[in-house]
Amino acid sequence: MEGAHPLMSVSLQKGQKVSLVGPGGGALTRVRMGLGWDAAVKRGLFGRRRPQPIDLDASCLLFDASGNLTDAVWFRQLRSKDGAVRHTGDNLTGEGEGDDESIIVDLAALPAGIAQLVFTVNSFTGQGFSQIVNAFCRLVDETTGEELARYDLSETGPHTAQIMAKVSRDGQGWSMTAIGATATGRTFQHLLPEVTAHL
Fold first, then answer.
1. pLDDT tens-digit series, residues 120-168
2. Using H for helix, E for strand and C for coil, what is the string for the chain?
3. Measuring CA to CA, which residue among 12, 16, 22, 21 is closest to residue 4?
4. What are residue 195's phi and psi, to 5 degrees?
5. All domains of the chain, ordered by start, with CATH?
6. Could you tell me if 176 and 107 are in contact, meaning their C-beta atoms sit under 8 angstroms apart?
């Protein structure tokens, strides 16, 4: 769906763009991209069913207006150089309820030179998304805790990575576009050619 519209708990489709505005109509200042998933249950010896641990990793890539990568926040670097983007920590299994990994972005604190943020997810353990269930990413207003948008990642297939969404400067505020492109790679570095095609 083309065209921007205000966020109101939207279930995003590929290519859909939403303006990042708060409930009062003002620009959002702090958002959290949450990633959640569960491992598919495998049938083991004697018919026992057991979950297979899967390590998905969320990353946030920061780009300038020319499309140059200026910084990256991921499990090996939990904070951006300017401190405006912070990863809450690596989840190695997907166990637990809700968001398994989160990246918090202080939009107001981002340097003026940052034009776009791209969020990616990789299967570090190498399983394809056909083995991953209940996978999603969601955008939350960090100030109120309200879920603003959700994107389902459980598209079955052999791919081991997805380019989830991008957040771009949009006039005085920001907008988010769901990308949902599949890719292959264990870390964000493997995805850079595909990511730059979506800038």
1. 989 888 888 877 778 888 888 898 888 888 877 765 678 889 898 899 9
2. CCCCCECCCEECCCCCEEECECCCCCECCEEEEEEEEEECEEECHHHCEEECCCCEEEEEEEEECCCCEEEEEECCECECCCCCEEECCCCCCCCCCCCCEEEEEEHHHCCCCEEEEEEEEEECCCCCHHHEEEEEEEEEECCCCCEEEEEECCCCCCCCEEEEEEEEEECCEEEEEEEEEEECCCCHHHHHHHHHCCC
3. 16
4. -60, -45
5. 10-196 (2.60.60.30)
6. no
pTM of the entire predicted model: 0.83
Burial-class residue 8 by CB neighbours within 10 Å (0-12, 13-18, 19+).
exposed
137 pairs with which residues across the strands?
Answer: 35, 151
Q: Do the Cβ atoms of 153 and 137 come closer than 8 Å?
A: yes
- Taking the C-alpha atoms of residue 169 and residue 165, their distance in angstroms, rounded to an integer, is 14
Alpha-carbon span 43 to 51, nearest angstrom: 9
